């Protein structure tokens, strides 16, 4: 295999295929040779697992996944990278590239078709501009995957892995925590990429829960309330939820009291259980 962590090798391959980076697609390829082996090791428990990758780029992470997994299916939006991947992954017969937009794919159907009955994990270096939508798509789809090991912007990692009820938490923290246990694995400096982004990254792992940590009667209403609660962080939960859900302050005040919460509490101070209690009280 050519050393895909060597800048001169990467430039040579890309030039050969007439490839230029797309800012719109958030393309930053990993050139730190230590990152992908570590990511793959942490993502794949043993060689009985299959891996789903999103945005393989030139195949640096894909290569490491293919060495460890039973099968790898990588979803790549940019068709200009297909001949590049054909070259960089030529030695593997357990890799399949799907040229598609992950946000428009029927992932449940794809998994059923490509991995029927297999143990699956997701591993990816996600584009910054679409990190949260991709993660939430994967979680909300309730796919038969055990975990998501993904590289994201460091600031996003801090929020995704924050404790619900802490200052760093937000609506996405609550959503992620509802579906999975989140942990930050390691930080990645901006110099580890080509071209180098303006911010550092981090690798996180989301281990899918067998069941949510709280009981909710109506998930849709719960997430609607959470989104409203965090929409105006400087305001109290009472004001934010009232405005965001179009409900009277009297109704929200009554619900806060029923849930045993302070009328002046802010959303970021509420634990997962308190948010669940508040939602149930609003619904009563």
3D architecture notes:
The protein is of the alpha/beta class. The protein has two domains: 202 residues, Rossmann fold (3-Layer(aba) Sandwich); 65 residues, Helicase, Ruva Protein, domain 3 (Orthogonal Bundle). Helices cover 40% and strands 18% of the residues. It is built from twelve helices and nine strands. It has a seven-stranded mixed β-sheet with strand order 4-3-2-5-6-9-7, with helices on both faces. Strand 5, helix 6 and strand 6 form a beta-alpha-beta unit. The protein is elongated, with a radius of gyration of 21 Å. The N and C termini lie far apart (62 Å). The model has no long low-confidence stretch (mean pLDDT 93).
Share of residues in strands: 15-25%
Question: How helix-rich are the residues, as a percent range?
Answer: 40-55%
Which radius of gyration do the C-alpha atoms yield? 21 Å
Find the structural class using helix and strand composition: alpha/beta
Which helices and strands appear, and what pairs or packs with what?
Elements: H1 7-16, E1 29-30, H2 35-43, E2 49-54, H3 60-68, E3 72-76, H4 82-88, E4 95-99, H5 107-115, E5 119-125, H6 131-140, E6 147-153, H7 154-160, H8 171-179, E7 180-188, E8 193-194, E9 201-208, H9 219-231, H10 237-245, H11 249-258, H12 272-283
Parallel strand pairs: 2-3, 2-5, 3-4, 5-6
Antiparallel strand pairs: 1-8, 6-9, 7-9
């Amino acid at each position: 295999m050519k050393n895909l962590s060597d800048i001169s090798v990467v430039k040579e391959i890309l030039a050969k295929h007439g490839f230029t980076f797309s800012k719109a697609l958030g393309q930053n390829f990993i050139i730190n040779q230590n990152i992908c082996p570590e990511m793959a090791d942490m993502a794949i428990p043993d060689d009985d697992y299959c891996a789903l990758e999103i945005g393989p780029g030139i195949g640096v992470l894909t290569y490491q996944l293919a060495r460890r997994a039973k099968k790898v299916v990588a979803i790549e939006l940019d068709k200009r990278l297909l001949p590049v991947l054909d070259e960089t992954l030529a030695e593997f017969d357990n890799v399949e590239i799907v040229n598609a937009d992950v946000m428009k794919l029927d992932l449940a159907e794809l998994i059923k078709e490509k991995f029927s009955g297999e143990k699956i994990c997701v591993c990816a270096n996600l584009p910054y501009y679409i990190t949260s939508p991709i993660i939430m798509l994967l979680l909300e789809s309730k796919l038969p995957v055990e975990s998501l090991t993904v590289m994201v912007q460091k600031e996003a990692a801090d929020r995704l892995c924050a404790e619900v009820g802490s200052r760093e938490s937000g609506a996405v923290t609550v959503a992620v925590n509802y579906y999975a246990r989140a942990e930050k694995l390691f930080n990645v400096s901006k110099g580890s990429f080509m071209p180098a982004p303006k911010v550092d990254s981090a690798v996180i792992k989301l281990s899918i829960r067998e069941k949510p940590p709280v009981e909710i009667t109506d998930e849709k209403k719960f997430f609607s309330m959470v989104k409203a609660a965090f929409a105006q962080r400087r305001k109290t939960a009472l004001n934010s939820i009232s405005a965001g859900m179009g409900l009277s302050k009297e109704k929200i005040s009554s619900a806060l009291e029923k849930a045993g919460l302070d009328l002046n509490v802010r959303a970021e101070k509420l634990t997962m259980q308190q948010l669940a209690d508040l939602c149930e009280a609003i619904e009563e």
